[in-house]
Amino acid sequence: MLAIEIDTEIAPDRAIHVQLPQGIPATRARVIVLYESDDMSRLDPEGQHGNLDDFLAALPRNTLGRDREEIAALVEAERASWD
């Protein structure tokens, strides 16, 4: 799958219009719309969805295995052994 980034304007009727570059074959495609907004509550008035940081903060911490600092120390020790 290939990706093309094209800047466009969202019209008052919430439509977007894009012209793809020459050489793009006629086929099916997926469209993902990314836009900036300071007011996400308009899209989620009931507060059912949060941002990614909130989601990650809500996940339980893994108490098994190594923590971030221990892994970083092991990686650093391995890199130091290469010299």
UniProtKB/TrEMBL annotation:
<protein>
    <submittedName>
        <fullName>Uncharacterized protein</fullName>
    </submittedName>
</protein>
